[in-house]
UniProtKB/TrEMBL annotation:
Record-linked Pfam families: FtsX, MacB_PCD
Stretches assigned to the ABC3 transporter permease C-terminal domain: 280-390
Coarse class of the protein's main subcellular location: membrane
Domain of life: Bacteria
GO molecular function per UniProt: transmembrane transporter activity
Protein name, UniProt field: Multidrug ABC transporter substrate-binding protein
Family: Belongs to the ABC-4 integral membrane protein family.
Limits of the MacB-like periplasmic core domain: 21-243
Amino acid sequence: MDIVEYFLLALRALRANKLRSLLTMLGIIIGVASVILLVSIGTGLQNLVTKQFASLGSNNVYLMPGKVDLRQGPPTANTSKFEITDIDNLTRGSSVISKVAPAVRQVAPVIYKGKTISVEIIGTWEQYFPMTNFEAKTGDILRQTDVERTRKVVVLGAKPAEDLFGDADPVGSYVTIGDVRYQVKGVLAAKGSGGGLGSDIDNSVYIPLTTALRQFNLTKPMMILIQSTDQGSVEQAAQDAKRILLRRLKEDDFTVMQQTELLNTINTFLGAITVALGGIAGISLLVGGIGIMNIMLVSVTERTREIGLRKAVGGRPQDILLQFLIEAVILSLFGGGIGIALGMLGSLAINQFIQTYVTMWSVALASGFSALIGIVFGVAPAIRASRLDPIEALRYE
C-alpha cells in the first residue's frame, strides 16, 4: 500500500464515526484557536504601545523624581526636588538638548453643563506640544504668555472634547476643573492609537504650568521632558541631563529614562504576558492530545476483529501502525485547521474593540504543535494495534 491508500483508508474509518471524530478534534480546535487568539491580543497590545511611543516622539528623554525601576513596578510616593531653574540649566548646559518642558500631573473632574468626566490634568507649557507631536485641531495650544500670566485656559484632548461637547466646537466655552472655571482655548487633533487598552494618549487636558501649580498646591514640577536635536544624540542628551542635574541633586533624587528604554522595558513585560497567555492556551492542546489518544485506544478495541482480519490476509504490523497513526494525525491537522480559522476570525472580531494582530509564528506554532500532538499521542494506540495477535483478534467479540 502507498501513502495515498493509507490516507484514504484512514478517512473512511473516520467518516464512519463522524460525531466521535468531531468530538475528538474539539480539544485541538479549542487549543489552537485559543493560542492564536490570546497571542494576537498580546501582540496587538505590544504594537499599540510601540505606536503610542512613536507618536510621542522618538528622541525624548524623561526626567522623573526619585529612583524609578519599571521592572519593580511604579515608584512609591516620591517628593520631586526639581526646580524651574533646572529648565534653564538644561537648555543652556547642553548643545544636543533642543527643547525642555516641565509637567505636573493630577487626576481631577472636568465639568460642563452637568456632564462630568474624570481625566488626567497636565500642567505644562508651550514646548510640550511640539515635543510630543500634538497639534491643535481647533483653536490654539498653550503659549508662554498663558504660563507667565497664570491664565485659566485649557486645551482639551480629543476624547474629553468629544465626551463633553460631542460634535460641537468647544473653543471659547467654559469648563470647570475641580472648582476652578477655565476657558477652552483649543482642542488637540486625535492620535487615534488608544485602541481601548491602557492609558489613552488622547484622554488628557492641558492647563498652564503656573496655573496647575497654584490650583493643586504644588511648588515643583513632577517631571521634566527633554528632547535631543536628533535621534542619534539621545544618549548624549541623557548623559548631559544627568551631569547638569547632579550639580544640585543627588543620584537618588531623580531618574533619567530614555524613551527607547521605557519602550523596551514595557515590551519585555508585555512579551512575557503574551508567552504566558500562549502557554496557558497550549494546555488545552495537551488536553486535546490526550483526548485523541483515548479515542484511538477505544477505536483499537472496537476494531480488534478488523485488525485480526487484515493481519490474517497478509497485513504487516507496520501497515496497521501506519494506518492508526495517520488517523490520529488527520484528526490533529483537521482540528488544527479549523482552530486556525476560528482563531483568526475571533481575532478579527475582537479587533473591533481592542487592537489585535495575528502573527505568522503563532499560526505556525499552533499548527505544528497540533500535528506533533497527533503523532505523539497517536503512537501508543497505533503500536497497540500493530502488536495484536491475529488469532486472538479474530476471536474477539
